[in-house]
Every structure is written in C-alpha cells, then in structure tokens.
Specification:
336 residues, alpha/beta, Inosine-uridine Nucleoside N-ribohydrolase, Chain A, two-stranded antiparallel sheet, 10 strands, binds beta-D-ribofuranose, binds calcium ion
C-alpha cells in the first residue's frame, strides 16, 4: 500500500486521477491539496470538494494552497477545461469541509506524522505548493519517499513547442522540485499522449455502469471535445491519472534514469524540461551506473540518480486499473 498526497488543480484529468487514487486498493490517499492551475485556486478547490461528493471520499483532509505561481501571472487553459475548470457534467455540492491549514502546512504535518520515507507526493498541477513545501520545510524533504509528478516531456510540449502546461505554469517552482534531494519520477507528455480516452476505451469504462463511471464519461466528452478542437486528437490524454497509476502499479510505466533540468530563461523554451538521455540506465538493473559500464565522468551527479523519466506505458494495464478502481468505488448516489 503506497501512501500519497495528491496535489491537484481539477481539471478533468485531475478529477479522474483523484477517483483512481480513491478507488485503487494499493493506494492510501492521505490528503488532497489544491493549487491554482486549470482555473483559479477558488474554482479548482470547489471542484476538488465536489469530487469528494462524487466519489464518496471521506476521512481525507482537503486543503487549498498557492493561488498564483512564484513568478509572473497565472496561465489559465480555459480552452481545455472551460470556465469552471471542470466544464461538462453538473457538479454536486462540495462533500467535505476545507481544512483550515494551508496546503503546505497539511503536507508538512502528514509527512512529519507518517513513518520516514512512506509518503509519495503526486502533483498533477503546477509545482508551486510542492516547491514552497520544500523551501519552507527543508528538514522534511528527505522524509518524503518521492515525487511522482505529471508534467513536462522530452519530445514535445503542449502549451508551446517546448513546454508542457504544468511546468510552464510555474517553471521556477518546477526547477526547485527537480533540484530538491528527493527522488522524482516525471510522467510527461511522452507517455501521457500514449494513453488517450478514445471511444473504444470509453466503452470499457461505461460497462462499469455506475453513476461515477457515467460522470467520468461526461468529463471525457467535454475534455475530448477540447482536445479534438484544439489538437485534433481522437481522445483526450489521461495525463494526471497516469501519474497516480504509476504509483499504484509500477509495471504500468517504463522509466529510465536521466537528469532533468527546467529551462527558466529561454526565449522560446521557457518551461521546457531538459532531459539528458545521452546515457541512461534502467533503475531495475542497477542503482549505480558504473555497474553497467557507464563511464563515471558522466555528469549525472545526484540528479541522474534521483530523476526518472517515463518513456513507455502499458495502456491496457492502465485501463484495467482505472476500470477496477471505478468498480470498487461502485455507485455513490451522488446525484440523489
Ligand atoms: C496537464 O495540464 C493540465 O491542463 C492537465 O490537468 C494536466 O495536469 C497536461 O499538460
Ligand atoms: Ca492537472
């Protein structure tokens, strides 16, 4: 069982990620924190609390975090997620009270209370909260088991040719997160674009035949419409659920170790994740690159050992995982 804190900005795919985390038997959801991203902090926080009603999520604290990036104005991708950040299905009333703590305080309290290296942070929005946590509580960074984040990409961006939304939304925060002394797994566009909610995949989910699976179908209809209009994709990518899935079932994602830096200055490349794939090694084969004959003049430094990047994904396994989680949640009667 992996204990996680989901730091999100719901967001259609964040919503599915939250329901996956709640329904998966191998994940213990210890907290949900929100960050401005797909919409204003106020809107995404209201959405997150409404999702608690949808999934009948109880006993999990929800706390609001940063309302803007460390530097510069907030970017809002309204063309993808709409005016509410979660356009499409009718949302129920929020099902949980908001925790009075700031997200950063909630993360710190959970990490301090839980056993050493037992909590994985799963950010599916911009990295502002996680960076502020690392800077405010540097003594807690090494207690965190790791950060498995949705963001970035090696081959492409989506907001610009080079940059993915979550990283571009706060590149300075992202660089702080990649530099901190915890293991980081990057679930980026290279893999999330291989998991599209195409009509045949949705048929599988609809067979679950509950109000929650119907809700996800409605989310995907709106989200898919945005991706069809903006990008001509046959289905919307399951970006954020893939980060949760990677934690729930390590066989879903193939990763390699590679140092990752965030471009914060480039005229055309601000927000790009620069992944050094010149020499990579499979973490399952060896912790130490020299064991695989990789020259020790390779300037991987601590970064190379701590960073993993997703390069391939078992999409069938992902859809089975999501289907099982929804089956496990069952019908919640959130529509009364
Ligand atoms: C990421 O950007 C957001 O719009 C999605 O929720 C996802 O986290 C994909 O680039
Ligand atoms: Ca998101």
């Amino acid at each position: 069982m992996t204990k996680i804190i989901l730091d999100c900005d719901p967001g259609h795919d964040d919503a599915i990620a939250m329901l996956l985390a709640w329904g998966n038997p191998d994940i213990e959801l210890l907290g949900v924190t929100t960050v401005a991203g797909n919409q204003t902090l106020e809107k995404v926080t209201t959405n997150a609390r409404a999702l608690a009603t949808v999934g009948s999520i109880t006993g999990v604290p929800f706390a609001a975090g940063a309302s803007r990036p460390l530097v510069g104005p907030q970017l809002i991708p309204e063309e993808i997620h709409g005016d509410s950040g979660l356009d499409g299905p009718q949302l129920p009333a929020p099902g949980v009270e908001l925790d009075s703590r700031h997200a950063i305080q909630l993360i710190a309290d959970i990490v301090a209370e839980q056993p050493d290296k037992s909590v994985t942070l799963v950010p599916t929005g911009s990295l502002t909260n996680v960076a502020l946590f690392a800077r405010t509580y540097p003594e807690l960074v090494e207690r965190v088991a790791g950060v498995t984040l949705m963001g970035g990409g090696h081959h492409t961006g989506n907001m610009t040719p080079a940059a993915e939304f979550n990283i571009l939304a706060d590149p300075e925060a992202a660089q702080i997160v990649f530099e901190a002394q915890w293991p980081v797994t990057m679930v980026g566009l290279d893999v999330t674009h291989k998991v599209l909610a195409t009509p045949d995949r949705m048929e599988q989910l609809k067979k679950v035949n509950t109000d929650v699976s119907q809700f996800i179908a409605e989310l995907v209809e709106f989200f898919g419409g945005s991706y069809m209009k903006e990008r001509r994709y046959p289905g919307p990518p399951m970006h954020d659920p893939l980060a949760v899935a990677a934690v729930a079932d390590p066989l879903i994602l193939t990763t390699v170790r590679a140092p990752i830096q965030v471009e914060t200055k480039g005229e055309f490349t601000r927000g790009q994740t620069v992944v050094d794939l010149r020499r990579t090694w499979n973490p399952d084969q060896a912790e130490d690159p020299s064991a695989l004959g990789i020259a020790d003049d390779y300037e991987a430094d601590a970064h190379g050992v701590r960073h993993c990047v997703g390069i391939d994904v078992d999409a069938d396994r992902f859809w089975d995982l999501l289907t099982s989680a929804l089956t496990r949640i069952g019908t919640t009667n959130f529509r009364g």
